[in-house]
Structure formats: structure tokens, C-alpha cells
């Protein structure tokens, strides 16, 4: 029996793919969409994989934000190693608030970069351009986003642009087609360039707006399912997970359930005592008004931190308050990029900074649906081929993480 060559990345070994492999991060794909979609016949391809592949769930990285988890997935590592602990953070040394839109804060290489340097033909297509520089870090191969599909040089493939490859124009930033464009690009690349390893990352536009079972949600997820079917038909092994789940954070009358934490701290402990940072904040703020289920509190003045944490624990909707050392140890986060303490709200509540910092006018008639906390940590974990015995045992008895997906699809399928 011939031993497959192994590629090392961040302390883990990955087999070089022997057939095309496509890994999909379906942004915001809460397990409720999976269960409802299979039950209602919306996800026919994925539903069939319960018999011919593997369909289960795993835990996303905390905080359950897009940048953190896409980075964990492509590095196979937690934020303590790769350094990306949110979409947005405060640099404690400079006091600068930083939105992560490039790879400057990345502290390690990626599986995709290691594979490409070993000669594996590799491609990345992401819906959100903010992720591209991280996902394609040190990667030799095809890389572009749905937001800017014409930046890649595709002339060697016979196409002038990403738009020509996919066969339609660049989609609107706030549309379901931003995600479908990325998936269609993956299909077309498999049909034409035939990369050996493809990573596709979508947007959570639909999941922020529509609940499982709503017509718009069903239409989108059925379209995703059809594209997965096509990838499998083309001979690819497909792996699917998500960066985070999604939860309704509104009351019975549709009003957002929000704890404005910085306002509460200023009122109780004095103006300017702390800065609350919302790691969910990103260029797609219309989705959620930068309100999620997790924030970091940075103290700006000397104060009784124990009393402050006790006060925060008393606020309605707050689920967990942890000091820096504890949150870093429990969730494998980088201490130098954390606040003095972290605050998690329950699945039905969002947390923000000051009321004036969060514009929810773009929600319109839609309920606030968001992520970032522990309530959105459970995500689907799907493979199109059956698992080897030892990997079946790991899935059945261990704690799966979404960043195990490359290990399972490259090392763990028959």
C-alpha cells in the first residue's frame, strides 16, 4: 500500500488530495437550517449524505465571528495560535481600534498556503473580500472574491475575469447571489482549471434576515444544495461546515433585545471608565448593526474590576462574564488581544457598546438575527464520503471543531 505524502501545517499533518477536494464554509449556517432543510426536503443532497457520507455537528471557535472562524478553519488551529480573535479589536499598546481586513495580524501559515507550496493546485473564492488576504495568505494559486471578481488573472484559464468565468456580473454586496457567485466560481473552476484543493467561503446575508423554513431561506439553501450536488457529480469530495450559527435576538414584538454595556458601565461606574469592543463589527454592518453575543471590555481608568464584573453579571440577558486569563484559557484566545474581561449574552440577547454606536435602521421590518456568542457555537459538519473507522470514532466520542474539517476531508474519508 502506497503511503500518501503528508503536508505539515501548524503542528498537524494533512494528506495531499488524491482527487479534487472542495471545502465550503457556509457562513451563518446554523444547525436549525440543516435540520429543517433536511426534514422539509430542501437539502436533498446533504440529506442523502447521512447514508453515503457523514452529517453531524461541531463547535465553532469563540468568538463566533466570521474572521475568527474562517482563519481557524484554514489554519486548523485556534486563535491562540493564529491570532485573529475577531473582525474588530482594540490594540492595547496603541489604543487603536482595528478592523481586520488583511493578513497583517495573522501569526501563522495556512493549510492552503502549505499545500500550494507543495505543488497542490489550490484555489480560494470568498464572498467577502475582507477575508481574501487571510485565506490566500502565502498561497500560490487562484484567489478572488465575489465582491471583486475581476482582480484575479484568469487568462491562463481562458477567461478575462471572474465575471466571465462565472458567466454573470458582480453581485450586490447585500444579496444572496454574493454567496452563490462564490459557489458557482468553485463549480466553474472544477470544470475548467481542475484545482486539487478549493476553499469556498460564503456570506451570511440570508441567515441574518430569514429564519429556517422561510421561503427566501429555503430558496437559498436549496440553491446551495444543488451546487454541492454538482461538485460531487464532478468527482470532488466535498466538506461543509460553518463559521458560526445564527440566533434570533428580538422579543415577541420584534424589538431587538440589546444590552448596551458601555452605557451601563458609564452610568454605574463613571463616564469614560471603559471601552466596550464588539468583535462582530465588520464592513457588512447592515446585517446586524455591529450587535452580537460577545464583547470585550477594556478598562480606561483604575477601578474595582471584580465589582464591575459582578455588576455586569446582574444585567438581564448576560450569560457569562470571564476575566482575561480565564477566557483565554477556556477558549484558546491570544492574551495580548483580549480585553480586561469578556461578556457573553444568551442566545436570545445581543450586546453592544453605546446605543449611539449601533444603527439598526437598515433592519427595516426584519428581526435582529446575529451571532458571536456561545449560543451560536454549534455548526454543521458534513462530508460527502464515509469516514474511516478511527475518524468515525472520533466524531462519535470526541469534541469536533469546525477547524478539524481539513483533517477529516484530507485524512479521514474512505
List the helices and strands and how they pair.
Blueprint: E1 6-9, E2 12-15, E3 21-25, H1 31-39, H2 44-52, E4 54-59, H3 66-75, H4 79-82, E5 88-90, E6 97-99, H5 111-117, E7 122-126, H6 132-135, E8 141-145, H7 162-166, H8 177-192, E9 197-201, H9 205-209, H10 215-233, E10 237-241, E11 247-248, E12 258-260, H11 261-269, E13 274-277, E14 294-299, H12 305-313, E15 318-323, H13 324-331, E16 341-345, E17 350-352, E18 369-370, E19 378-383, H14 389-397, H15 405-411
Parallel strand pairs: 3-9, 3-10, 7-8, 7-9, 12-17
Antiparallel strand pairs: 1-2, 4-19, 5-6, 10-19, 11-18, 13-14, 14-16, 15-16
Structure notes:
This protein has 414 residues and is an alpha/beta fold. Helices cover 31% and strands 20% of the residues. The chain has helices at residues 31-39, 44-52, 66-75, 79-82, 111-117, 132-135, 162-166, 177-192, 205-209, 215-233, 261-269, 305-313, 324-331, 389-397, 405-411, and strands spanning 6-9, 12-15, 21-25, 54-59, 88-90, 97-99, 122-126, 141-145, 197-201, 237-241, 247-248, 258-260, 274-277, 294-299, 318-323, 341-345, 350-352, 369-370, 378-383. Strands 4-19-10-3-9-7-8 form a seven-stranded mixed beta sheet, with helices on both faces. Strands 13-14-16-15 form a four-stranded antiparallel beta sheet. The chain starts with 5 loop residues before the first strand and ends with a helix.
Amino acid at each position: 500500500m502506497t503511503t500518501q505524502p503528508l503536508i505539515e501545517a501548524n503542528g498537524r499533518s494533512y494528506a495531499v488530495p488524491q482527487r479534487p477536494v472542495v471545502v465550503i464554509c457556509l457562513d451563518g449556517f446554523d444547525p436549525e437550517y440543516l435540520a429543517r432543510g433536511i426534514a422539509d426536503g430542501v437539502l436533498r443532497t446533504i440529506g442523502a449524505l447521512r447514508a453515503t457520507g457523514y452529517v453531524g455537528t461541531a463547535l465553532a471557535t469563540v468568538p463566533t465571528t466570521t474572521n475568527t472562524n474562517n482563519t481557524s478553519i484554514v489554519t486548523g488551529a485556534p486563535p491562540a495560535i493564529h491570532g485573529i480573535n475577531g473582525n474588530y479589536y482594540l490594540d492595547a499598546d496603541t489604543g487603536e481600534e482595528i478592523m481586520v481586513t488583511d493578513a497583517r495580524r495573522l501569526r501563522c501559515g495556512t493549510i492552503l498556503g502549505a499545500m500550494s507550496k507543495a505543488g497542490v493546485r489550490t484555489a480560494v473564492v470568498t464572498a467577502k473580500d475582507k477575508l481574501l488576504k487571510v485565506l490566500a495568505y502565502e498561497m500560490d494559486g487562484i484567489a478572488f472574491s465575489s465582491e471583486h471578481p475581476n482582480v484575479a488573472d484568469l487568462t491562463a484559464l481562458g477567461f478575462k475575469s471572474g465575471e466571465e468565468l462565472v458567466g454573470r456580473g458582480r453581485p450586490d454586496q447585500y444579496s444572496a447571489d454574493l454567496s452563490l457567485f462564490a459557489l458557482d466560481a468553485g463549480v466553474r473552476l472544477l470544470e475548467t482549471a481542475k484545482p486539487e484543493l478549493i476553499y469556498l467561503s460564503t456570506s451570511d446575508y440570508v441567515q441574518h434576515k430569514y429564519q429556517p423554513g422561510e421561503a427566501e431561506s429555503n430558496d437559498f439553501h436549496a440553491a446551495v444544495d444543488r451546487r454541492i450536488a454538482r461538485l460531487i457529480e464532478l468527482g470532488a469530495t466535498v466538506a461543509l461546515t460553518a463559521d458560526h450559527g445564527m440566533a434570533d435576538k428580538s422579543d415577541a414584538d420584534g424589538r431587538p433585545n440589546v444590552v448596551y454595556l458601555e452605557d451601563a458601565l458609564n452610568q454605574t461606574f463613571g463616564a469614560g471608565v471603559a471601552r466596550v469592543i464588539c468583535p462582530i463589527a465588520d464592513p457588512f454592518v447592515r446585517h446586524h448593526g455591529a450587535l452580537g453575543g460577545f464583547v470585550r471590555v477594556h478598562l480606561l481608568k483604575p477601578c474595582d474590576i471584580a465589582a464591575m464584573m459582578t455588576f455586569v453579571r446582574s444585567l438581564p440577558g448576560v450569560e457569562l462574564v470571564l476575566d482575561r486569563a480565564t477566557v483565554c484559557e477556556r477558549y484558546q484566545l491570544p492574551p495580548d488581544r483580549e480585553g480586561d474581561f469578556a461578556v457573553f449574552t444568551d442566545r436570545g440577547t445581543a450586546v453592544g457598546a453605546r446605543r449611539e454606536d449601533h444603527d439598526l435602521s437598515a433592519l427595516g421590518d426584519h428581526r435582529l438575527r446575529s451571532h458571536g456568542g456561545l449560543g451560536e457555537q454549534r455548526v454543521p459538519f458534513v462530508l460527502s464520503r464515509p469516514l474511516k473507522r478511527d475518524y468515525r470514532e472520533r466524531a462519535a466520542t470526541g469534541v469536533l471543531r469546525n477547524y478539524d474539517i481539513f483533517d477529516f476531508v484530507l485524512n479521514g474519508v474512505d
